[in-house]
Amino acid sequence: TKHALMITSFVFVMMLLIEYLNVITSGEWQKRVACHTWGQYVLASLLGIIPGCLGPFVVAAMYSHGIVTFGSVVTAMIATSGDEAYIMFAMIPGQALMLTGVLIIVGIAAGILTDVFTGRSFAAPDRCDQKFEIHAQEHCECFSPGKIIRQWKTCSSARGILTFTLMFFILALLSGEVGPSQWDWISITFLTVTSVALFIVATVPDHFLEEHLWEHIAKKHVPHIFLWTLGAMIVMHLLTEQLHLESVIRENNWIVL
To answer: Any stretches that span the bilayer, and where are they (predicted)?
Structure first.
């Protein structure tokens, strides 16, 4: 449950940042990404090769918003080497660079095949449709210093809950209750991204917070993400601890491939 909450919290933060970016650009960046599926595979692979887990989290958040295809998620997950990328580039930079190139090619090919087999054409024009809620008739002044104090004097329950949740997550990171047991770059990444999200929640106008962050993300997406993540972790726990699948995989690498 602890790991599921941590993963859900980070995906929520990334979705919040994407929502903020989409609104302040009036949805233009989302349209450009959604309309060029070939570009989605390339973008997903580039995000995937970023050392650590930030890139795959971004792609997962974009998929939750309907911006990229499921194949793009597959591309990112294949291209990523996770935390091990730091070690590989430090100890075997030449081989690591070559492996990264291979993973990009394999990831893009796997992403295309995934979309083909799942019935999602990688040239489908319907992905250009607007997926985010953009209220064209309203101008969102997402950062107005003169209104911040007034908004907090009449603080809504949504703003209070989101602020408390993000502050609690930051305190949990600082105390080591969530995230890595030792302070490292992962903790710094989590802290930086969550702090930016806290700033957004604390400063955006009530309409943006209520309609986009609370109704669209917190209430619509977060419960599903948490349940899917928790379910996946329970299944993996059963497979590795009860059925000892880990040893089977280790002894049959070619079958797994």
So the answer is: 6-29, 41-65, 85-113, 160-179, 185-204, 225-245
